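Hi P.,

Sorry for the delay on this. The queue was packed all week, but I finally got your sequence through. Input first:
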Amino acid sequence: MLLIKKAKKKINAAILIIGNEILSGRTQDLNVSFISNWLNNNCGISISEVRIIPDIEKKIIYNVLSLSKKFKYVFTTGGIGPTHDDITALSVSKAFKAKYNFNKEAYSILENYYGVGNFNDARKKMAKMPSGSKLIYNPSSAAPGFMIKNILCLPGVPSILKSMMPNLKKFLIKGPPVSSKTISLLTVESRIADHLTKLQKKYSKTVDIGSYPFFRLGRVGVSVVVRSINKKLIKKCSIELLKTAKQNNIKTHLL
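Then the structure:
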């Protein structure tokens, strides 16, 4: 039976999106929201930073090293396919001064998937990764992702990435899930800004408060989202917010 460690404190991570097609606008990123929600709901891990960079070796190396020192985990997307601009695996190898060579298990998986006759050099490239990597299995198109140190490299294709996410669990230390409560107020942000600032300062180390303007059915308002790993503090903070709103004649909006 696989035992997964669980941390008592909040675990933060980052996402590094690699790909010229994202920066050019040709391809719309769909992975950030999915990864963020999946990690929070399944592993209690929160994404605290997202970076988008081109397929340039120096930039990949710099950002991988920078983020790996700053966060518990870094999830990369893109750049592990068979084409000339898929250089994530090579760049990560150089970042950690690891040999870039064929992973025997990945090679075998891909050879069985394509068949010996169709297993060309481009497809073989997907079996090359940093020496010592752990495989992240791919139930959709066989080509595995990999983990080295605290970097987890995933494909950029959303449907394939989604199918691989459950296979990450065995590598991750679980943190307490972050819960949230949304309170929608019929007001403008400028009217509640000072109140939210005071509330955030009071709960600065335990609760995150975000405000998001909306326009629904002719009504202008602000959705205030209160997040924390402590549900009791979410409730306490929400009660204070509603009390402040009432004192200032600000109505709540039921969605």
